[in-house]
Amino acid sequence: MNTFSVAKRVTKQILGDRRSLALLFVAPIFVLYLLSIMLNSGIDKPNLEGINLPQTLMESLKNETNIVEVQDENKALDRVKNNVIDGLVKFENDKIIVTVEGSDMAASNSVKKAVSKAFNEYMHTSIASNPMLKQLGFRMIDSEYNYINGSENMTTFDTVAPLMMGFFIFFFVFLMAGVSFLRERISGTLDRLMATPIKRIEIVLGYFLGFGIFVMFQTLVIQLFMVYGLGITIKGSPILVLLVNVLLAAGSLTLGTLLSAFAKNEFQLFQFIPIVIVPQILFCGLFPLRETPIWVNVLSKIFPLTYGADALKGIVLRGYGLSKAYMDILILFGYALLFIVLNSLALKKYRRL
């Protein structure tokens, strides 16, 4: 009964705090929307200029790029340096020379991809139109890519969306829970609670349930927005994705309240972010760890988001079921229980029982 009384009070308090509600629901959706726009706004056709290009190659490049033929190489190089165009393509001594500015890797990679594709098309056309080469048996070897998961139309955002969904749920819940619990202490509310016969574990569970109601709704809203607002396809079970997100949020919630017990003000709480939050985004799958030192791989196993991101990526992109994702789910559940126990122990400095 005491637990539900605490949960009811916390619920009313959050409902009356518009900033907390905005942090939970508006902020993650807005950031995810911006991220989707940025990652889906790649360079479809780079702007190039060409010098002394064979007509057939020029036609192939026109299919893949916005290319204009020019005569003055020095002026063209100046336009590349000043980022007026993405690159210069020159045919000299039976060789294609491509010059890019180089500081923008997205533009450079776009030029490389487009020129390579155009050159392959040019070689196909050249060999096919030469009867002598055909008689000698020369031919271009075609390549074909088969995808076990995903497709050639999958964008960068489609790949990182499950990871970002888990991270933003974890991050914003951590902020909301940590700041709210810290305010409870600073305002004296926690001290008044500790002066009553209520047990420490009942206080922890009360806060967990009170915050947990909003965390559940936040997780559901973000997941629905990712699927119906941003068009992310979930190959596995949406219910399983929801379960992983809820467990991630539960771990973040209890971690936030735990660390707030060791902070005297909001600034000190934010000092935990570089230690607790930033490493998690490095280890959540955005960056490959296959070739990193062993100690980096061992360190990544400490953080909850490592397991949450692994489960989300498996379920959303590979269609994993519970039989393959159960270990990550159990570990996330274990983290939530561990942080609840540690929260109760952290309150010992206010009262023994």
Structure commentary:
It is found in: Cell membrane. This protein is mainly α and 353 residues long. It has two domains: 2-39 and 155-349, no CATH class; 47-135, Periplasmic binding protein-like II (D-Maltodextrin-Binding Protein, domain 2). 67% of the residues lie in helices and 6% in strands. It contains 16 helices and four strands. The protein has helices at residues 2-15, 18-39, 55-64, 73-81, 105-128, 131-135, 156-186, 189-194, 200-229, 238-260, 266-270, 273-276, 278-282, 294-300, 304-318, 322-346, and strands at residues 47-51, 66-69, 87-92, 95-100. It has a four-stranded mixed beta sheet, with helices on both faces. Strand 1 (47-51), helix 3 (55-64) and strand 2 form a beta-alpha-beta unit. Helix 10 packs antiparallel against helix 15 (304-318). The longest helix has 31 residues, at 156-186.
Summarize it.
Its main location: membrane. The chain contains 16 helices and four strands.
Sum up the structure in keywords.
transport; ABC-type transporter activity; Inner membrane transport permease YbhR; 353 residues; mainly alpha; 6% strand; elongated; ABC2_TM; D-Maltodextrin-Binding Protein, domain 2; 4-stranded mixed beta sheet; 16 helices; transmembrane helix
